[in-house]
Amino acid sequence: MDFRIQTASLDALAAINADALVVVIAGEALPAGLDAGVAALAKDAIKLGDFELKAGKTLTLQRPAGLKAPRLVLVAAGKPTLKAARAALQAALAQLKGRGVAQAAVALLGFEASTESLAEQFVLASQDAFYVYRHTKPSAPAPSKLAKLSLLVDKADAAAAKAAKAGLAQGLAIGAGIELARECANRPGNHATPTFLGEQTKALGKSHGLKVEVLDKKAVEKLGMGSFLSVAQGSDEPLRFIVAQYQGAAKTQAPLVLVGKGITFDSGGISLKPGAGMDEMKFDMGGAASVLGTMRAIAEIKPKLNVVMLIAACENMPSGHAVKPGDVVTSMSGQTIENLNTDAEGRLILCDALTYAERFKPAAVVDVATLTGACVIALGGVRSGMYASDDELAGALMAAGDAALDPCWRMPLDEEYEEGLKSNFADVANVAGREGGSITAAKFLQRFASKYRWAHLDIAGTAWKGGAAKGGTGRPVGLLTHFLLSQVQGR
Ligand code: BES
Ligand code: MN
Ligand code: ZN
């Protein structure tokens, strides 16, 4: 898709030359200064009862009188917020899909959100609407005809045009990151293996100038990652520990480290999961996919920052070699762990990655994981669970989620939640009771993250959708990218 910013007089939309002119209107009244021809058509449609200035309402008019464009798509957004703009854009794109429209021009009128963020969401909503998974589905629908989308900005407002261009560029970078994350997550477990994730990272490193190292079992053994190794040992699919580095600031500047859970299939191991819906556990590398996508976005935006990405990737499978309930393993940190449930494997691979992160003397570490079913129960698919050892870091992640329309919600880390992780046979157990399951998982991780500012995102509810729209969402690439950009010094 080709995205552009087009300057125009908003009182002369009738002259816009496109297959479809899309006018998105916020608020309950037609905006002052709206093109007279468009306003007359809208007023008439409202009078006829065919259109209303209420969120979600759309109307497509063919060969609208007095307009150069052969189609006019009116879309009401309701509130003047960024979130309402995204929903309205989604409704507008649904109107354009599957039609003879090859190029469309979109005007967003009456919004209070910044032009920059509106332009970003303009790109993201469009890319989302037109993403089609194809890799293992030759019968997937042909690509949409729509090839060119222009965002119209007021010709008289030079600052708006500049902001729109910046927002468009940021949207393209984040959009590319989201697409990479979705594509990796959607590919089935027999395609998206740990080896594949390593290869994808290497390819990104080559195309975008990242330093990449992919460690195999031997190297991981040498590092002493006994906890990570214990999860991988039940599978014939070789593990990978993937390191990618983006350098945009002086080498002396402490990096931000992102850590992703890369379980490419979670059967539960010996504590086997029930069969129904088990296929969705191919998405258990959603954390890894999102940190990889974020690296792509960052490598395109090129901020003055240093960022390190770590992915621990393996399968969690039952076999004669698999780790058993009751087994005790020694993590890279030296702490021993009693495995009381082999299905609580995510924390077992993340804890060694968190210890590995220490060597970078990081400014902060954020791990991202489809960690617990309990988080899905707590927050559903709207907000990711966010835990932080530091209020400032929590505030920055919260603000980034809101700005990116990829929201999270802070969860508690009171020490009482750690009680249940006590073990008679090791320093710590990998599970506590059922209550507060997302929190006790975070408490487990916190034991391995004491050397730096740390946050954890439990994305079990937000990384993918089930049902008819089954597929990866690319979340939280938007949140993470906005967060990293907020950490640029002197910004
Ligand atoms: N990958 C799952 C978490 C998950 C479950 C994500 C459902 C999305 C939907 C994780 O490895 C897991 O199995 N967690 C267990 C932990 C339990 C054994 C303490 C869970 O949540 O049931
Ligand atoms: Mn599991
Ligand atoms: Zn898992």
TrEMBL record:
Protein name: Probable cytosol aminopeptidase
Record bears the keyword Methyltransferase: no
Organism lineage string: Bacteria, Pseudomonadati, Pseudomonadota, Betaproteobacteria, Burkholderiales
Cofactor, how bound (note): Binds 2 manganese ions per subunit.
NCBIfam families, alphabetized: PRK00913.1-4 (NF002074)
Function statement: Presumably involved in the processing and regular turnover of intracellular proteins. Catalyzes the removal of unsubstituted N-terminal amino acids from various peptides.
Occurrences of domain Cytosol aminopeptidase (ranges): 341-348
Catalysed reactions, as listed in the record: Release of an N-terminal amino acid, preferentially leucine, but not glutamic or aspartic acids; Release of an N-terminal amino acid, Xaa-|-Yaa-, in which Xaa is preferably Leu, but may be other amino acids including Pro although not Arg or Lys, and Yaa may be Pro. Amino acid amides and methyl esters are also readily hydrolyzed, but rates on arylamides are exceedingly low
Necessary cofactors: Mn(2+)
Key words of the record: Aminopeptidase, Cytoplasm, Hydrolase, Manganese, Metal-binding, Protease
UniProt-annotated location(s): Cytoplasm
InterPro entries from the UniProt entry: Leucine_aapep/pepB (IPR011356), Macro_dom-like (IPR043472), Peptidase_M17_C (IPR000819), Peptidase_M17_leu_NH2_pept (IPR023042), Peptidase_M17_N (IPR008283)
Enzyme active site: K273, R347
Binding residues annotated for Mn(2+) 2, in chain numbering: K261, D266, D284, E345
